[in-house]
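Quick one, T. Sequence first:
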Amino acid sequence: MLIKSLEILSVMERLTKRQSGTTWDMVCNWVNSHSVGTVFKTRDYLCELKDVPVRPWAHNQHYGPGYRLHQYKGYLRRLGFIKNTGYGQWKVLKPIPQWFNLGHTEFLFTYNNNETYNGLTRSEVEELI
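Structure tokens:
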């Protein structure tokens, strides 16, 4: 058990620095800038993240520049980081760990069929978040 815990900590240390510049990281940093229990509005979320870089083709193919922002907000809701408290209102339930990236999200939602991701199993990732 101790060896497994040390292995998990080693993996987490490699993943502690969030890459800046990706849409996912900017969304996570924005949510983490609000303290637990804070309620924010979808309108504020979209307005404050409006300059997030989006691939040019995404505007036409995926229904506008806010599509990806809404998708990531839905991911965070499904993972238990935020909660919809009313129409257009969201509450921060817990901070998003710095090591947690979009790959972990896809792994937990089984978009990635591997047994492990960055050395962690699904149950280990769920336990750590």
